[in-house]
Each structure stands twice: as structure tokens, then as C-alpha cells.
Amino acid sequence: MVRNVHIFDNGIKVSNTHLTSGQRKRYSKCNVHEAEEEAIFISIIKSIPLDGCFVDIGSAIGYYPILAKKLSSNLTIHAVEPLELHRKYFIENIELNNMNMSDFQIHAEGISSSDGFVKFVEKRFSSRIEQGQKERKSFKSEVKAPIKKLLFHLGFNNFEPPRKNVIPTITLDKLIDIVGRPVDLLQMDVQGLELDVLKGGLRSMQTGYIKTFLIGTHSHSLHRECLDFLQKFDYRIEFENNETKKQPDGIIVGSKGVSRPPLPYAGD
Prior knowledge:
By secondary structure, this protein is α/β, with parallel strands linked by helices. It has a single domain, classed as Vaccinia Virus protein VP39 (Rossmann fold, 3-Layer(aba) Sandwich). The chain is 34% helix and 23% strand. It contains 9 helices and 13 strands. Strands 5-4-3-10-11-13-12 form a 7-stranded mixed β-sheet, sandwiched between helices. Strand 7 (116-122) and strand 8 (128-129) form a beta hairpin. The longest helix is centred in the middle third of the chain and has 15 residues, at 139-153. The model is unreliable at 133-145 (pLDDT under 50).
């Protein structure tokens, strides 16, 4: 059976059915997942030891773990993805890129500031842990939610409210204990929960057990808070930009005990 496959300029293959219409439109202009972050990601992966360790929190359909393995075949890779559908797609894309399941350790838990169980909003690439009472909803969003629900019940399927599920969570420190070794690069894309994840990793940050963070940020305030939090634990900010032009997220790179040349940037 011939698959409908999207091939990125770096050679990574994913099933076209896994992508959203917005992503396809973005890739038609620049055919990599995140043009500005990818140049930085590639440079970091190439700078870490060949037998190093990469952890990806919010790995979605597996783009960055598969790219990391393509760039450095002996890396130990741990990928965290709470959305069951995306884990299924990730496994399909591992096969599509002629890699082995044994090359990746995939974790189904969410990463948060504490262990436990939380509501998880299933919304494809915007899926996220629900913050409950801490989450501040604008009046506009409060009005739009029942309108969307009404439209869905009237037969307008595009307005289907996101499904919510209950998932287990562990802290970043617990995840690093499971990994069981120093982490050369930890990348995260957690849709606004960046600070919560960092707050669950105090021990790993104090010890420098996580050598480099590559964080996708989702608001100006969170970007600033993450910068302050990393610097509080003596992480050197190698790169930061909250005004990216070719991708939806801001970028922060912070490292501890690491020396490398200045990171490239593809945003100009």
C-alpha cells in the first residue's frame, strides 16, 4: 500500500494525515517543522557526545526524536507524549523512517509540578494539562465556549469542543530518575505549562543533571518567567527570542556546565 507521505527538506518522513491544514500551509513556505528552532536544535545535537541523552517533553508525532536519531544514531532518546493518538502516530513514523522502536523510550505520563492525576485537554498539537482553578479564562473565552458547543450540537463539526481525559503526572525530577543518567538536552513544548514543568525539576536543575534546556515558550510573560527561573539556578542563557517570525513559539536555550560556539539562528 502506497502511503500519503510528507517528506521534509531534512529527509524526515511523516504521514500526511498526521498534519493539520495549518501545518501544511506553513510547510509549503518553509519545509521544516520549526525553521528557527530547528537550526538551533541541530547545532546542539551535533555538539553533545555521540552516546549522549536527549529527552523530549511534548514529542507529539515524533518529529524531533526522529530527527535527533537521524543526526546521531547512538543517542539515548526518551520522549514524553500524553496524547494517545500522537503516540500512535509517533510509532507509525518510526516505522516510516526505517527506525526501530527500541531506539526510543516513549512515556505516556504528563510532566507537571507534582505527581498525581490531572485533566488533560485533547486538542491535537495544542493538547495540554488543564490548570483547573489556576487557569484564568477571559470573558471572551467564557462566552465563546458555550457558543462552540451549541454550534457542534447543530451539526457544525468543526466546532466540536475538545475532549478531556484524566492522565497521570510525574515531576521532571521523577522523569530524570527514570531516565537514570545525566541529560545532555531536554527540549519541551508543553503549551503554556513551561514553568510548571521547571518547578518540578528543582533537584535536577540544582545539580546540573540537565545540562541544556531548549524551551518553546507560549507567551511573553512565561518567556520572561522561564528566563528568570533558569538564571536563578545558574543556567547560562545561550539564546532567547520571543519574537519568532517563522514559527508559533518563542525559544529559550539555557545551559549549565556546557561550552560551545554561539548557536545559529534561522530567523533573519
